[in-house]
Design a protein that fits this description.
This protein is α/β, with parallel strands linked by helices. It is 49% helix and 17% strand.
Length: 378
């Protein structure tokens, strides 16, 4: 004879059957195994009992007056608070379609009457253990999610606090570079310029992390207004000038003002990110070509470089935040960090699209399109 279940691990079982003799027989067997057992003589009473005190498992008959077992199970599975309770059908119906209908209603198992108690015990304990494991897994997941949210909050706080000293450092380096007394040698001026580039890149990376997180969580609200993309590109070029070195950045503007409804500062950051990536993967003396071209009800902005180019397999992955580790692990030379992830989120938030055309060794052209009237704005 099997040992009864330890009191600390007792599980609550609700039996539902309109025949009192069946309930009495099965109840005695299960109580003898240490389970806490309750009974209900109808589907309606069963639903009331379940809502008042949800059990760990339900043994459910099918043929009952008023509300049959299928209907009881369907109502349980429609309730978010009760849908995870495993339901084992226990019925004299033994046709295949009866079993199919039971599983379709949400049952996890089916036992045909007359039953063997050893089979009932085995199936009950199996599904109770599955539920315990599922709960442990959910608890572990919730804990992991909580820790991840804490980690993300700490990272954002640190990065947010880093922006101020980095901005100050850049400002002081600029003062040194622009010194009126011309006391710096050409070599020292070059060192200062390199330091400014490095600090500017760190500021941009910090902004990418914070803005990507805000976009993903829906906390960044777009402040839309009509803006001319010709002017936005001019400002973007001025903003990355400290990073440009001896690279030649050329702009081909649209013949007429390229007006779109957009958040100017966000789109400016998108263009600066694309420009910064182009600068990162090109050499002094190379050209970077920018263009603005109206195309029907959209306007396309392109940034073309003559850098390393991108392997075909990674063209779409470079816009994915979680692909950056894969790019680095695969020794891909083109690993732009979170900048392109932010660009994708920002452009799509404006109802636009973004992409890249590239061939290894022949450079890349990153582009994005925005609807003229801001269609699809979040």
């Amino acid at each position: 004879m099997k040992e009864p279940i330890h009191a600390e691990n007792q599980s609550a079982i609700l039996m539902v059957d309109d025949v009192p003799e069946n309930l009495e027989l099965l109840s005695g067997m299960l109580k003898g195994r240490g389970y806490k057992v309750r009974a209900a003589l109808s589907g309606k009473l069963a639903l009331q009992a379940i809502r008042n005190n949800p059990p760990d498992l339900i043994l459910l008959d099918i043929n009952m007056p008023g509300m049959n077992g299928y209907e009881v199970c369907e109502k349980l599975k429609a309730d978010p608070d009760l849908q995870d309770i495993p339901v084992i059908f226990l019925s004299a119906l033994n046709e295949t379609m009866d079993k199919v209908k039971a599983f379709g209603a949400g049952g996890v198992d089916y036992i045909t009457k007359p039953f063997q108690m050893e089979e009932v015990e085995a199936r009950v304990e199996t599904h109770l253990e599955l539920r315990r494991q599922k709960r442990r897994l959910q608890e572990a997941y919730d804990k992991l999610r909580e820790l991840e949210e804490l980690r993300a909050s700490l990272v954002q706080m640190i990065i947010h606090d880093l922006r101020s000293p980095l901005t100050g450092t850049f400002a002081y380096l600029k003062l040194i570079r622009d010194n009126a007394d011309n006391t710096l040698s050409a070599a020292h001026s070059g060192y200062v310029a390199e330091a400014m580039r490095a600090v500017m890149q760190m500021i941009q990376m910090a902004c990418d992390v914070l803005e990507t997180s805000s976009m993903e969580e829906g906390r960044m609200k777009l402040k839309t207004a009509e803006c001319d993309l010709n002017r936005v590109l001019e400002d973007a070029i001025s903003g990355v000038k400290p990073l440009s070195g001896k690279r030649d950045i050329r702009l081909t503007p649209a013949a007429q003002p390229a007006i779109v409804l957009a958040d100017r500062e966000i789109i400016l950051r998108v263009i600066q990110n694309l420009l910064s990536n182009a600068l990162k993967f090109t050499r002094d003396g190379d050209q970077i070509l920018l263009s603005v071209a109206p195309e029907g009800d959209r306007v396309r902005v392109s940034v073309k470089d003559s850098g390393l180019g991108i392997d075909h397999a990674y063209k779409q992955k470079i816009f994915d935040k979680f692909a950056q580790k894969e790019l680095r692990a695969g020794n891909q030379r083109y690993s732009p960090g979170l900048g392109l992830t932010f660009c994708k989120l920002a452009v799509e938030a404006h109802g636009g699209s973004i992409g890249v055309e590239s061939e290894e060794g022949k450079g890349s052209t990153f582009w994005f399109e925005l609807p003229v009237k801001g269609a699809g704005l979040q």
